[in-house]
């Protein structure tokens, strides 16, 4: 199938505005207690009312971002407000650390063991402060961001299960999200903080986690960037590696750094060549760098966010470099993703397929899937292709 840029821009725009956002607007709002329901079945019916901090904050971010960058729609701001006020009241412990999960009423269920709760809080409240003009929201955003900076070298703190000193490893997830988060918060940060953090995270991602021999991004390395021959040391997470690369492209484009943009594109293409399922299509969830059996039993599942982040990276990579390999891979991933994940009957996208590409979990949202990767990718791909028209 031949695609043209205007048709693609229109597809992503219409899917975002007429399919994805209406699904979450209709089914996810907890108008009684505040916040959002994210555990939604295929038709949008709520099957669990617990509230997961990542997903609550991500939905605040989504509607705030669209209000800021697309259209000043009052209903979008109200949806963001519904989550932001619930989270400001219930989301943190007395030391200002963000919990992982709450019950419907906002009582804590899971301790603040995960730095990414703070990451997404900072992202969410930064964009919400910009949208609403609320000074208190700026304070929430900066407090969460400073938590992330403080905890980045020991992200789980007292909640870590690892025994200290025996096998020290650091994860790609921390610097990659910090890079994106810092760019998201540019308007709230001092120029010095902004440049220092962006510079440090790009150097860490492209220096420590990128393996020049294989051309791949490793998920875990030692503190000095070397590899350990163990399960964790060999794991490749294709989705993380590719998502990290469009974060890097975004920063490099801001700095007019074509060398780093092309290096990031090279990594995306290397990961695709390594992680594409030649038999059934789609990208594996986890892989072992040496081809050994991965420890993750779900390694061969095909996940929505992995493919969406790949579409963003390829669209962005093509726009910035015009490299034909990006366009060829984009079309391949596009066909697989839209044929297998998009639900043409009830709207939104399925999240989890088995290796053969069949729907594995008949849900639109849960503990990990909410109103974030699908709308963000729709918006970003729309913008990339519109710029190419």
Could you explain how this protein is built, in words?
The protein is mainly α and 389 residues long. 55% of the residues lie in helices and 8% in strands. It has helices at residues 5-27, 53-69, 74-90, 115-132, 135-151, 173-184, 191-209, 231-234, 238-254, 258-275, 304-321, 324-340, 373-388, and strands at residues 39-40, 46-48, 51-52, 101-102, 108-110, 170-171, 210-211, 216-217, 220-221, 235-236, 287-288, 302-303, 352-353, 359-361. A hairpin with a 5-residue loop joins strand 4 (101-102) and strand 5 (108-110). Helix 3 packs across helix 4. The longest helix is centred in the first third of the chain and has 23 residues, at 5-27. The relative contact order is 0.13.
Radius of gyration: 20 Å
Q: Give a quick account of the main beta sheet: strands, pairing sense, barrel closure.
A: 3 strands, antiparallel
Dominant shape: globular
Mean pLDDT: 97
DSSP, total strands: 14
Q: Unreliable segments (pLDDT under 50, ≥5 consecutive)?
A: none
Q: Give the percentage of residues in beta strands.
A: 5-15%
Structural class of the helix and strand makeup?
mainly alpha
Order of helices and strands: HEEEHHEEHHEHHEEEHEHHEEHHEEH
Please estimate the helix content.
Answer: 40-55%
User: How many DSSP helices?
Assistant: 13
Strands ordered across the widest β-sheet: 3-4-5
Alpha-carbon distance between the two ends = 19 Å
